[in-house]
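User: When convenient, might I ask for sequence and structure tokens for a protein?

AI:
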Amino acid sequence: MAEERIVLVAEIVGDADMQGYQISALAGVLSRVLERRERLLWDSEFSGDGMTVVLAPDQVRRTPLVPELLRDLEAELHDHAVVGRLRLRVALHRGAGVSDGWGWQGTPVILTRRLVDSAVLRTALREAHRSPLAAVVSDSLFRSAHFGREHPLVDRFRPVYIPTKERTEKAWISVTGYEEPPGIALWTAPRPDGGAGNIPPGRPR
């Protein structure tokens, strides 16, 4: 039986002329964040305009790993702004069977990449001009022990419904520096046709 993994995909938003520098900066930021976590195994690869990271969390002692990673990532991006602004879209999901022997593949990786490329995440960061980070977490990961329903960061996330090729995925979105993520109203409820409805955003239930 394949062990569960957490998949993190980070995509850079910014000037194409700065991509080489920003990719190098992103690798450094993610390495520093991940190396702070004890007993966490991880591997990464460059993908598109960013990086894909596969995490092997402690299966015995489950802790709120995801919000702690996001909190440290926010701090790193704040520090990085002193020397040059780095803006990211980040998606996280969990699942098993993420490797086919030729790299990180499988349904969990594919879905995470679709989440990071979703219209709602792109819109939220585009409208959040002063924010360095917009993050989306799949519903299954958000409700797991890897997030932790009692963690203070939970209150910053709002539910959204993201259409994919197969179905509409419920997920949770947060934008650093904003109590309410901007621009998400079109995705805050599912439509009967499987898309997303135009209902004003509200607090998660």
In short: The chain is about 30% helix and 30% strand.
